[in-house]
Amino acid sequence: MKAKPIYKIVDGKGRVLIPKELRSSSGMDYGDIVRLGISQGTISIKKVDLIEVGDQSPEAVEAFVHAAIREMPEGTQIAIAARLLELIEQRKGQRHE
User: Fold this and answer.
1) Cα–Cα distance for residue pair 51/70, rounded to 1 Å
2) Which of 35, 50, 66, 89 could form an SS bridge with 31, CB 3.0 to 4.6 Å?
3) C-alpha angle with apex 67: 76 to 56, nearest 5 degrees?
4) In angstroms, how far is the first alpha carbon of the chain from the final one?
5) DSSP 23-36
6) How is the chain split into domains, by residue range?
7) pLDDT tens, residue by residue, 41-96
8) Cβ partners under 8 Å of residue 6, min gap 6
9) Are 66 and 96 in contact (CB under 8 A)?
10) What is the DSSP letter of 69?
11) Coil, strand, or helix at residue 85?
């Protein structure tokens, strides 16, 4: 049985909400990395585990960090979160000097 098409409106920033049913069926979750492509006028989106080598765009780096953190043990996640908070506090202190 063929799935019914789903229609969405593109917002002013070019965003489209992927319905939960589609995200679940494709295994996509918050923070996952996706690759967007276009072929013959059709846009595709695919969940990926790794970004392409050499892509150091801010979006690619952020996606990599999100994916890496999800795979780390909880203790490591907490240590990283604590270090990030320290860095933020240091920056705040530097701004007020």
Assistant:
1) 15
2) 66
3) 110
4) 66
5) HHHHT--TT-EEEE
6) 20-95
7) 999 998 887 666 677 778 778 877 887 888 889 999 999 999 999 999 998 888 76
8) 19, 22
9) no
10) H
11) helix
